[in-house]
Amino acid sequence: MIRTSSLTSFLSLFVALHVGVLAQEPTQQKIKGEERKLVEHMLENVHDLLKQNYYDPSFHALDIDARYKQYEERIQKAESLGAAFRVVAAYLSGLNDSHTIFIPPRFNNTPDYGFELQMVGDNCYVTKVRPGSDAEGKIHPGDQILSLDGYTVGRIDISQLQYYLRQIAPQPITRLTARSPSGETRNVLIATKYVEHRPRAFKDFEMWREVGELQMTRHLLRQQYVERADVLFWKMPTFLTDDKEVDRMIQIARHHKTLVLDLRGNSGGSVALTARLVGSVMDHDVTIGTRVMRKGQKP
User: Fold this and answer.
1) What is the pLDDT of residues 94-137, one digit of tens each?
2) Residue 252 has pLDDT above 50, yes or no
3) For residue 266, what pLDDT is reported?
4) Residues 84, 38: one domain?
5) What pLDDT was estimated at residue 27?
């Protein structure tokens, strides 16, 4: 089933109101009075708009009002801005809904950890180390990451860890336990580099891309295919592309008897584009899902 809600507006509102007010490594510093009030206001808005717009008015059997009071008290005890942000994120995490998350204000400086991770099966591996970063020489592509900042890294955990480190509470020092392909295990401390935000001039595009500000690059979004006799192998990395690109690939596929659509690692995206793709390969109407909304359902 396809779940829908109208929470994008308030998530965007937080960024629009508070972008640019946070300094380098802000989440580790002792929280100020005005910052605590801002986070309290964020939690209040999250709570109110959740009650107004969330697609499930029962909130998955959560007592949302009691939960709000509980997490409001936790903000009062938070010692840093990052800890306060974690309270708001934790308030929403009780819904266990990947499409309803807290996006805090953008930091004036973007953290660049100097390495990238990817799950392969149930294990997490280093896939890229940035030259000139503190990570260079300490970890290497192919190293398995056993723990990150004291947390075991598994398929279930990796998205939450990335969310925590990149959006909620960037860390000045990252603690890793890494295992090399030879089996050697070592503990590593890696210093985070902070890159100051600059105007989005064309010359800055590569810098923004490298530090993760643009997570979906043109390279990752491009459709890839291989033709072998009467078979077309189509690697579709995302449903965040335009209709013309999908139509172009379908036209290529029509010259073959068989289409193999590779969706491994596909990050999802547009429901409308998904429907367009399904409609392009079916010769009759099909129901691909049921849209579950606050006021009923629609196939």
Assistant:
1) 998 888 989 888 767 778 899 999 989 889 999 999 999 999 99
2) yes
3) 86
4) yes
5) 59
For 277, the domain range is 218-298
User: How many domains are contained in the chain?
Assistant: 3
pLDDT tens per residue across span 192-221: 988 776 554 444 444 444 555 455 456 667
Q: What is the pTM of this model?
A: 0.67
Identify the residue with better confidence: 252 or 161: 252
Q: Quick check: is 143 in a domain?
A: yes
Exposed/middle/buried for 191, CB within 10 Å: 0-12, 13-18, 19+? middle
Q: Are residues 114 and 203 in the same domain?
A: yes
Domain containing 149 — which CATH number? 2.30.42.10
Average pLDDT score, the chain: 83
Rounded Cα distance, 96 and 247, in Å: 35
Strand order in the sheet with 231-235: 224-228, 231-235, 258-262
